Fold these 2 entries.
Entry 1:
Amino acid sequence: DESERSERIDAALDALGDDVVILGHNYQRREIVEHADYIGDSYQLSKEAAAADAEYVIFGGVTFMAESADIITDDDQTVILPSMEASCPMAGMAEALQVDAAWAEITEAAPDEEIIPITYMNSYADLKAFTAEHGGAVCTSSNAHLVFEWALEKGDKVLFLPDKHLGENTAHRLGLEDETADWDPWDPEGKDAEEVAESDIILWDGYCQVHERFRDHHIESIREDHDDVNVVVHPECRREVVEAADVVGSTSTICEVVEEADPGDTWAIGTEIHLTNHLDRWHPEVEVVPLCGDACMDCNAMRQIDPNYLTWVLEELVAGRERNVIEVAPREKELAEVAMNRMLELQG
Ligand code: CIZ
Ligand code: SF4
C-alpha cells in the first residue's frame, strides 16, 4: 500500500544520503511531489539540479526535462528518469530529422532572407542542437517574447518550434499577429511557400493536448458559475483562451497568483490537472477550481512516473545499479547548451 511504499522510498533515501536529489515537476502526482526535494517547472528544476551537489538527480518529469538537466548539470552528475516511457507528445511533434527536412523547404521559400529558428524548452536535445547550428536560440514560456525580438533584430524571420499556440500568443504580445504563417509538416497543403515568403513568424504545427483542450466557452461558463472568479492560463493554450483569461503565464506564475491571492478569492486554473489539485491542497484558504471541470486533463507523459518506478530506481541505486540514465550525446550536448546559453544571455 501507499504507506509501505513511502517507507521503502524513505529507507532508500536514508541509505543514499546526500548522493541523491529528487526533482518533482508541478505536473507530477502527489505521491511523487511529496518525496521531492524541489518542486517547480522544468527550467527551475534544471537550475536546482545544477546547484545541487548530489551525484544522482532523479527527475520526476519527462524526457526532455531530464535531458536539459543532463545538459546543465556537471559531468559527474547522473540524471535518472524513473520511466523511459515518459515522453512529451508535443516534443515528439518536432523531431530533428523531420525539422531538418522541412528546413530545406522553408529556406527555399524565402531564399534571400535569414530565418532564425527558436525552439521552446519543451523539445528534445537534438532539436536544440539543430537550433544552435542554424544560429537560433531556445526559449521558455516566460522569455519567448525577448527571444523573438532578438531573432527579428538579428535576422528576417523566425521559425518557431514546436508549439504553435505559444508562438501565436507571443506574436500577439509583440503586435505581430498579422505577420504569421502556419507550417504543417504533415499536410502538403499546410506548407504554403508564398505565405512563408510574406510572413515574419513561421509557426510549426505542434501543440500540447493538455492545454489545447481548453476553449473560450470554458471561461464563459466558469464566469457564469462563480462570482468574481479570476482566470489564469498557460500560454500553451489557444489564442481565444489566452484572450479571455485575466492572467497568462508559466506554471511559476500560476503558482504565484494563487500564493498571493487573498483568502476567499476564487481562481480558475487552465493547466495540467495535477498542478490545479496541488494548488487546491497547498492553499486551502483560496478557492481553486479547474477551468474545464471534469474535462481537465492530466498529461499522459507525466503520468508515466509511477511511485513504484521511483521506488525501483532508488532501491537499484542502493544496490549499486544505475537504471534509466538519461545521457545526451557529447556533440549534441555541447550544441544544445549553446542554444540554451543564448537565451540566458538575453534574460540578463
Ligand atoms: O507544459 C509543460 O510541460 C510545461 C509548462 C512545462 C514546464 O515546466 O515548463
Ligand atoms: Fe508535454 Fe503538454 Fe505534457 Fe507538458 S503537459 S509534458 S507540453 S504533453
Note: Residues 41-43, 121-122, 208, 234, 236, 251 surround (~{Z})-2-methylbut-2-enedioic acid (ligand 1) (CB under 6 Å).
Entry 2:
Amino acid sequence: MEIKNAEFVSSHADVSKCPPPDKPEFAFIGRSNVGKSSLINMLTSRRNLAKTSGKPGKTQTINHFIINSNWYLVDLPGYGYASVSRDKRQGFGKMIEQYILKRENLYCLFILIDVRLEPQKIDLEFIQWCGSKEIPLCLVFTKADKLTRNQLNKNISVYSATLKRTWSELPSLLVTSATEKTGKDDLLLFIENALAD
Ligand code: GTP
Ligand code: MG
C-alpha cells in the first residue's frame, strides 16, 4: 500500500472529543521517547507531520492524522515518563487507558519497544494489560539502526522468549528504524491486511 496523502486532523486530551469513530484507526503507543512520532513521520514520508523531540514527553495529547482520506493514524503520549509530576503522569495514563478501551474503531494498537533494551517491566505489564482487554495489537521494535544484526537478532529472541512465558500465541513482531527508514513496507503491509480483513 502507498500513502498518497497524510493530514493532521486534531489533537485532544479527551477521547470523547476525538473525530467520529467512523473510519479504521491504527495507533502508536509505547514508552516516552521510544520513537512513536518519528515512526508516523517515516510511514507517511513527512518530516514533521508528528512533532518529535530528543526529550521524552513531547506528545501530550491524542493526535489524529487522516491517511488517503479513509483511515486514521494516531500518535499517543508515551507512558513511563518519570520526569513529569505524578499528577500529570496519572493524567496521561488515564487518557491512554480511556483511548484504548473506548475507541471502537481501533483496528490495531502498535506497541513500540526500544530494541536496544532488555524487556522492561513497564512494557511487559502494558502488553499484558492490553492482552487481558483483548486489544488487537502488534509489537514494533524501534531504533534497529543502533544495533548490529547479531545484537538485533539476540534481543528479539530474548523478547520473544520472555513473551512466550505468558502468551500461548505471540503477537506479530515488526522491526523498524525511523532513521534508516527500514520496516516501512512491513508495517504498511500489516495495515493493508488489517484493513482488508
Ligand atoms: P514522546 O512523544 O515524548 O512520548 O516520544 P516519541 O515516542 O514520540 O519519540 P520521538 O519520535 O519524539 O523520538 C524520540 C527520539 O528518538 C528523537 O530524538 C528521535 O530522533 C529518536 N528516534 C526515533 N526513532 C529513531 C530510530 O529509529 N533510530 C534512532 N537512532 N533514533 C530514533
Ligand atoms: Mg511523540
Note: The chain has one domain: 6-196.
